[in-house]
């Protein structure tokens, strides 16, 4: 229970007993860190232009600029960019339906070179024009990690996608009926064409670009400059033969002979038969041959037939090529070779086991003759039907993999690529090199030969997270690329015409790209705002869906399944049920992203069996190298592992190891689960499926009228409430000066108030604000006047929080027993007392909108003058025809009166009579007022009126503006009051006891200033006192100036606010006026409502029973809820 001390709020936190038996090693990190860091790195708003790193917006600009004209004599360079101050704050954007964003202005230079004076090597600058150009509006992230787009809060979900780099895999025998494994490799860049290599069932190796028609891989190898000789040299070792008159001598290499069946008698130097024909060559045989110093073996003629020539063999006399590389030896060819006097015959070495002739066979299917022919073949595949001119062929090949503008591996891709190829360095060119392509083909051939392992694509070392910043950067790049094309076309005109940079750049493509991404992308989602937990979970979500990701239909079981590398990185429990299961995950509690976008998790270092306090973050790739113990491993008070055998993980396997072998241990048992799952007490005893439901259903809890803390918590309640931003925390320490239902005024401690800053913090509490799901966001102060605060203290509760802790439900007394079938299966029986006490009553806020448009027949009008409306209904409306705040309304009640002009019609006699009696109004307009819909009843809590620029505001709109200004002035007055009190306190301290040269009330020169004199003088006249000491006088002048400066800045702020409120509103085309009415609807628990516990036990209320009929305990206490015991 909270203590009742009014002295310090910090002593009034809820006291909880911790039953955990080990201390926390690592604080839970800020839960929205990933989102906020990513977007901060994208904007780099607070960083000086010269100190910005090449990331985010900066990278997008430097990638697109400089833009050079087609003739090369005009160039546009990017210098730097800045972000303007947003025009409206978050709350104003939500009210007015605007996007909370900032205008990007880039400083660019237009350089025109002199044609006459310039040479090919050096250009002479003729003219330089520099200008700031508007480059679209970038949405800004709110303090809570969300975005306000067109007035609604949205979240950009992070995407888990396959990392750029190279991947080797096989089809698991599914392609061919024989079940043969067909190996393939794929080079995936961050941006550019995919390059695939694959074996077919006949062991021919093909490649394809962007999943187009496949071609033999040797075409690509020839295109990168290899010839058949060098191709064979790269993939095979040679057997060297000395041709004799009959047969040949072959060089003896023991490793190649071992295990093969001899096709002829193998004899030693002395002529002794070591291996008889048709016998298998064993280690003993090779040893005997080595011992007898045999270097060459005589082989018969038929052993040579079918062997493949490794190099071109040229007749030394005529220069004619007798045998080409990759030719098969036939009797005719052998005869030809002998006739030409060829003695040395190199052939490639192959065998059935681990040295297949795949590249040789592929080369035989390839009909291209040289490098250019190979490139033409690739051109024809990429551009079928287009004539292959030499320039076009070379340009296309360069653009495919070697041009940084069209191909980008990215830092991650290069790092992964080099790691896979076994290179030591992690950096390198961002485009492919010939060496890269050759190395990939070599590894793939090795895999087919049985050497090496294929990659696991579901391993988190092969999947990385793309955050908000990266996704937004890609969109900005797209917009800039569209601009680049247009600017390039127009740059040529800049030589003849006096054009400035802003004449050449049209920012619309950037705005369109960003608008499309933030407004309509699959990853930009309407924020789930049911309660604080659903908000925080939505922001920590990681989706495998979206552009560049998977699709629900194509995703198989393996991708969705829990992988061993999810441990401590992605929650194995929290994922949706249904078609998205396993594709949408949640970040684990302690996980974070490294610079490459891979998820890391913290581990505690263990040295010689002793756990240290050193924390290291390991990615999935690094983790595989270590032996890691669990967080519950037994430790003595010095941190030494006490068990002989410790349960640990090594390379993804759970094992028991000797304590001395342990290198790391987990930091907390909760590190494997997400925020929602860690809110479930005794999670370890729950079935996984039910835990999943429990974690998911906590996000569906509607905030109740009176939140009640959970008796049993897990310690995450406070962290999640604070990090979600639903509670108000003190930004600086101080003393509470004033509290009411809507504001908390804090006088900041002198130590924390920096020079030149106002030492006052005013917290305006949110009152009855509608969330995205129509639930009620409402903050209540939990501090009293005079309380001392420390930085970070909770000073106001929000929705579903109690004393700064998350409180999603109510503590109920539950009975487990059947009750006349009313709680059969998933039905729930509820006591009437629960409803009467408003335990599960919640407030929902509905927004009703009416617009007055300009129609063909004339303008619609919002008015009180509505035909056929009863006096009773009219009495609840003001002169403008809008209902009063506080009115309780029923279905059918009029909220806003509106009339629409009607077309002229032939009048009936009755209508003529009506017109004669009541005048024009009765017939030429129809009533189109906003009324309460069926099934809704509630209280009007707020009205907003928006008027187009140039249209007269009605009384109600003016009154709303006046009230808003009054509230703003109240805040400023409070700040000024505290600033002045502080100033006068400092003056009093400064002047008492000092000698004066004169002052108000005829203060004599040389008299001492005392408290009685100061009390007698009006405080504002203290500044007129003239102290004798120059230093004191200077200090007094300084305080006077700073007070006046503060007052002046407040006046400016007030004027700015008034200007904002009085300017016309941006409304949709044809809309003259818009009125929003907010209704607060109280909803009580009723049959048909869903209820759930934290362990996945859900049900539907079937009956609400009088208290006297409820089952009761031995002491007569009736139960609140009766559940089925089964």
Strand and helix layout:
Blueprint lengths: L32 H11 L12 H9 L2 E2 L5 E10 L6 H7 L4 E13 L11 E15 L7 E3 L2 E5 L1 E5 L2 E6 L12 E6 L6 E5 L5 E5 L5 E2 H7 L4 H8 L2 E6 L4 E4 L2 H4 L8 E2 L5 E3 L7 H9 L4 E4 L1 H4 L8 E2 L6 E3 L7 H9 L4 E5 L9 H8 L5 H12 L7 H12 L8 H11 L13 H15 L14 E4 L1 H24 L1 H4 L4 H4 L3 H13 L3 E3 L5 H8 L1 E3 L13 H4 L23 E3 L5 E2 L5 E9 L2 E10 H4 L3 E3 L15 E6 L2 E6 L5 E3 L8 H4 L9 H10 L18 H9 L3 E2 L4 E6 L3 E6 L11 E5 L4 E2 L5 E2 L2 E2 L6 E2 L4 E4 L3 E2 L2 E2 L7 E3 L10 E5 H5 L5 E14 L2 E2 L1 E2 L8 H4 L13 E2 L4 E3 L1 E4 L7 H10 L2 H4 E3 L2 E2 ...
List keywords for this structure.
Dna-directed Rna Polymerase Ii 140kd Polypeptide, Chain: B, domain 3; 9 domains; OB fold (Dihydrolipoamide Acetyltransferase, E2P); Rna Polymerase Beta Subunit, Chain: C,domain 2; alpha+beta; 5-stranded antiparallel sheet; 1126 residues; 7-stranded mixed sheet; single chain; disordered N terminus
Describe this structure in words.
This protein is globular. Strands 25, 26, 27, 28, 29, 30 and 31 form a seven-stranded mixed beta sheet that branches. A five-stranded antiparallel beta sheet has the order 8-9-10-11-12. It has a five-stranded mixed beta sheet with strand order 43-59-44-58-57. The chain is built from 31 helices and 59 strands. It has nine domains: 9-15 and 702-811, Beta Barrel (OB fold (Dihydrolipoamide Acetyltransferase, E2P)); 33-160 and 466-525, Rna Polymerase Beta Subunit, Chain: C,domain 2; 164-229 and 366-460, Alpha-Beta Complex (Dna-directed Rna Polymerase Ii 140kd Polypeptide, Chain: B, domain 3), CATH 3.90.1110.10; 235-351, Molybdopterin biosynthesis moea protein, domain 2 (Alpha-Beta Complex); 528-590 and 669-701, no CATH class; 598-667, DNA-directed RNA polymerase, beta subunit, external 1 domain (Rna Polymerase Beta Subunit, Chain: C, domain 4), CATH 2.30.150; 827-840 and 1084-1123, no CATH class; 842-950 and 1064-1083, RNA polymerase II, Rpb2 subunit, wall domain (OB fold (Dihydrolipoamide Acetyltransferase, E2P), Beta Barrel); and more. Strand 26 (599-607) and strand 27 form a beta hairpin. The chain is of the alpha+beta class and 1126 residues long.
């Amino acid at each position: 229970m909270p203590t009742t001390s009014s002295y310090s709020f910090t002593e009034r936190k809820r006291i909880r007993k911790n039953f955990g038996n080990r201390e926390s090693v690592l604080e839970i990190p800020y839960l929205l860190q990933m989102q906020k860091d990513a977007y901060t790195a994208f904007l780099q708003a607070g960083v000086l232009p010269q100190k910005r790193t090449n990331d985010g917006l900066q990278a997008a600009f430097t990638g697109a600029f400089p833009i050079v004209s087609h003739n090369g004599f005009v160039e546009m360079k990017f210098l730097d960019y800045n972000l303007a101050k947003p025009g409206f704050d978050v709350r104003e954007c939500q009210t007015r339906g605007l996007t909370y964003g900032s205008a990007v202005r880039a400083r660019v230079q237009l350089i025109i070179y002199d044609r006459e004076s310039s040479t090919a090597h050096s250009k002479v600058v003729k003219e330089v024009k520099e200008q700031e150009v508007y480059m679209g509006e970038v949405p800004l992230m709110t303090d809570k990690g969300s975005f306000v787009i067109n007035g609604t809060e949205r979240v950009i979900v992070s995407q888990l996608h396959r990392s750029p780099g190279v991947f080797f895999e096989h089809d698991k025998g599914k392609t061919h009926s024989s079940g043969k494994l067909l190996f393939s490799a794929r080079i995936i860049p961050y941006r550019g064409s995919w390059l695939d290599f694959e074996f077919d069932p006949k062991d021919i190796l093909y490649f394809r670009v962007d999943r187009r028609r496949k071609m033999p891989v040797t075409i690509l190898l020839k295109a990168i400059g290899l010839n058949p000789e060098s191709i064979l040299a790269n993939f095979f070792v040679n057997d060297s033969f000395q041709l004799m008159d009959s047969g040949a001598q072959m060089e003896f290499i023991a490793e190649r002979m071992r295990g093969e069946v001899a096709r002829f008698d193998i004899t030693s130097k002395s002529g002794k038969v070591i291996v008889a024909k048709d016998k298998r060559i064993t280690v003993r045989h090779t040893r005997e041959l080595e011992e007898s110093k045999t270097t060459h073996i005589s082989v018969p003629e038929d052993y040579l037939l079918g062997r493949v020539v490794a190099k071109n063999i040229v007749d030394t006399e005529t220069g004619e090529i007798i045998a080409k590389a990759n030719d098969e030896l036939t009797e005719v060819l052998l005869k030809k070779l002998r006739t030409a006097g060829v003695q040395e015959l190199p052939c490639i070495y192959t065998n059935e086991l681990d040295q297949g002739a795949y590249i040789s066979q592929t080369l035989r299917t390839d009909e291209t003759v040289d490098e250019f022919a190979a490139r033409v073949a690739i051109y024809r595949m990429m551009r079928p039907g287009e004539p292959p001119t030499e320039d076009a062929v070379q340009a296309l090949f360069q653009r495919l993999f070697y041009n940084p503008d069209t191909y980008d591996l990215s830092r991650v891709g290069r790092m992964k690529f080099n790691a896979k190829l076994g290179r030591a360095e992690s950096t390198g060119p961002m485009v492919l090199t010939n060496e890269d392509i050759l190395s990939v083909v070599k590894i793939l051939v090795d895999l087919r030969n049985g050497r090496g392992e294929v990659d696991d694509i579901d391993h988190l070392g092969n999947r990385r997270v793309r955050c908000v910043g990266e996704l937004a950067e890609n969109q900005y790049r797209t917009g800039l690329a569209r601009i680049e094309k247009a600017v390039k076309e127009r740059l040529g005109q800049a030589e003849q015409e006096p054009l400035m940079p802003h004449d050449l750049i049209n920012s619309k493509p950037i705005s369109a790209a960003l608008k499309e991404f933030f407004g309509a992308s699959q990853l930009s989602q309407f924020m789930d705002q049911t309660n604080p937990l659903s908000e925080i979970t939505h922001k920590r979500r990681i989706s495998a869906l979206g552009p560049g990701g998977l699709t629900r239909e194509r995703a198989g079981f393996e991708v969705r399944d829990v992988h061993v590398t999810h441990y401590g990185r992605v929650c194995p429990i929290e994922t949706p049920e249904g078609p998205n299961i396993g594709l949408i995950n949640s970040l684990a509690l302690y996980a974070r992203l490294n610079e490459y976008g891979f998820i890391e998790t913290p581990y505690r270092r263990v040295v010689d069996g002793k756990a240290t306090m050193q924390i290291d973050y390991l990615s999935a790739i690094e983790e595989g190298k270590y032996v890691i113990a669990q967080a519950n491993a037994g430790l003595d008070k010095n941190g030494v592992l006490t068990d002989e055998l410790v349960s640990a993980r090594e390379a993804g396997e759970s094992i028991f190891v000797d304590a001395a072998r342990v290198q790391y241990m987990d930091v907390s048992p909760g590190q494997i689960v997400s925020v929602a799952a860690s809110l479930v007490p005794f999670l370890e005893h729950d079935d996984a499926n039910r835990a999943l439901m429990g974690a998911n259903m906590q996000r569906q809890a509607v905030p109740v009228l009176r939140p009640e803390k959970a008796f049993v918590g897990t310690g995450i309640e406070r962290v999640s409430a604070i990090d979600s931003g639903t509670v108000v925390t003190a930004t600086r320490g101080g003393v509470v000066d004033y509290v009411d239902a809507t504001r908390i005024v804090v006088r900041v401690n002198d130590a924390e108030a920096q020079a030149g800053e106002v030492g006052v913090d005013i917290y305006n509490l949110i009152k009855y604000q509608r969330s995205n799901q129509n639930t009620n966001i409402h903050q209540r102060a939990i501090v009293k006047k005079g309380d001392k605060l420390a930085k970070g203290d909770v000073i106001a509760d929000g929705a579903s929080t109690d004393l700064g802790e998350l409180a999603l439900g109510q503590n109920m007394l539950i009975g487990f027993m059947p009750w006349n079938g009313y709680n059969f299966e998933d039905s729930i029986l509820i006591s009437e007392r629960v409803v009467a006490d408003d335990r599960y009553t919640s407030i929902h806020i509905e927004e009703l909108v009416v617009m007055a448009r300009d129609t063909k027949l004339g303008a619609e009008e919002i008015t009180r003058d509505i035909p056929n409306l009863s006096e009773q209904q009219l009495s609840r409306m003001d002169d403008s025809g809008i209902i009063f705040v506080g009115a309780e309304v029923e279905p059918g009640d009029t909220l806003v009166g509106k009339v629409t002009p009607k077309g002229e019609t032939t009048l009936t006699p009755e209508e003529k009579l009506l017109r004669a009696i009541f005048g024009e109004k009765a017939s030429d307009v129809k009533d189109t007022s906003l009324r309460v819909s069926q099934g809704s009843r509630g209280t009007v809590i707020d009205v907003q009126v928006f008027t187009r620029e140039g249209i007269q505001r009605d009384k109600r709109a003016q009154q709303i503006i006046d009230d808003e200004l009054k509230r703003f002035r109240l805040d400023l007055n409070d700040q000024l009051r505290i600033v002045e009190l502080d100033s006068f306190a400092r003056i009093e301290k400064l002047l008492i006891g000092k000698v004066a040269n004169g002052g108000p009330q005829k203060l004599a020169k040389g008299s001492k200033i005392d408290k009685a004199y100061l009390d007698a003088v009006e405080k504002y006249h203290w500044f007129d006192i003239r102290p004798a000491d120059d230093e004191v006088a200077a200090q007094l002048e300084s305080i006077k100036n700073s007070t006046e400066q503060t007052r002046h800045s407040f006046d400016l702020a007030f004027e700015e606010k008034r200007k904002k409120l009085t300017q016309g509103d941006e409304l949709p085309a044809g809309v003259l006026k818009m009125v929003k009415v907010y209704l607060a609807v109280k909803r009580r628990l009723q049959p048909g409502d869903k209820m759930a516990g934290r362990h996945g036990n859900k049900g539907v209320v079937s009956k609400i029973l009088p208290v006297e009929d409820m089952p009761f305990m031995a002491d007569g206490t009736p139960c609140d809820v009766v559940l089925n015991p089964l």
